[in-house]
Design a protein that fits this description.
The chain is an all-alpha fold. The chain contains seven helices and no strands.
């Protein structure tokens, strides 16, 4: 069963540090709203991946290629919107005071945090990467650990996977929040604009993958 845990940790770390819409969203939301907002984005897969896993194990292999294509296109457009929003916000926003990094005042209070979490969950659901992973290697690994080590082995695989998938993004949020204290005025706005542009670029890549999938399916 230790092998199942190590396998989950390995895949979780690789997924956690890979560039993608969720990692970009962690960075932009931490820059804009602080450590708590970045943490909520990092935790979003824990709230939205269970139905993805169940769908992948049950029916993902039977879906037409166009389904993932449309999902990728919709997800890419949504991520582009979030990136453009961050670039526009960079014109007027200022960095929070360093003392507020670990308990920042988020615009809109609890409502603002709920909005951040909702957008993060939507981004994860519209991102085809979790579907592709769980529909291919992930489902096979999960079923394989279940077959060799039972429910305990499968549980350890999932625990290891999400420990590092989420943990790596929590670490990124912490590092970015610490760097906010070094940024003031124009420097902060430039970094926020750059992170928003990066997020929009990742959205373009995601949308492009969706379009290519649709073309192949057609």
């Amino acid at each position: 069963m230790i092998a199942s845990l190590i396998l989950g940790l390995s895949y979780g770390f690789a997924a956690g540090v890979s560039p993608g819409p969720m990692l970009g969203l962690v960075i932009t939301q931490t820059l804009r709203r602080g450590w708590r907002a970045g943490n909520l984005v990092a935790l979003a897969p824990l709230l939205s991946d269970l139905p993805i896993i169940m769908l992948a194990v049950a029916v993902i292999g039977r879906l037409p290629g166009a389904a993932l294509g449309w999902l990728g296109l919709a997800g890419g457009l949504f991520v582009i919107f979030l990136g453009v929003e961050s670039v526009r916000a960079a014109r007027t926003e200022r960095a929070a005071e360093p003392a507020g990094d670990l308990s920042p005042a988020v615009s809109g209070g609890d409502e603002g945090l709920r909005r951040v979490l909702g957008r993060a969950v939507a981004t994860n659901i519209l991102n085809p990467h979790p579907y592709l992973f769980w529909g291919t290697a992930g489902a096979q690994l999960l079923l394989g650990t279940w077959s060799s080590s039972g429910a305990a082995g499968a549980g350890l695989f999932l625990a290891g996977f999400y420990a590092l998938l989420v943990g790596s993004k929590l670490l990124v949020a912490l590092l970015v929040s610490r760097s906010r204290g070094w940024l003031r005025g124009r420097g902060y706005r430039r970094v926020l604009a750059a992170s928003g542009a990066l997020l929009a670029g990742l959205g373009l890549l995601l949308a492009g993958d969706g379009v290519r999938a649709l073309l192949r399916a057609g």
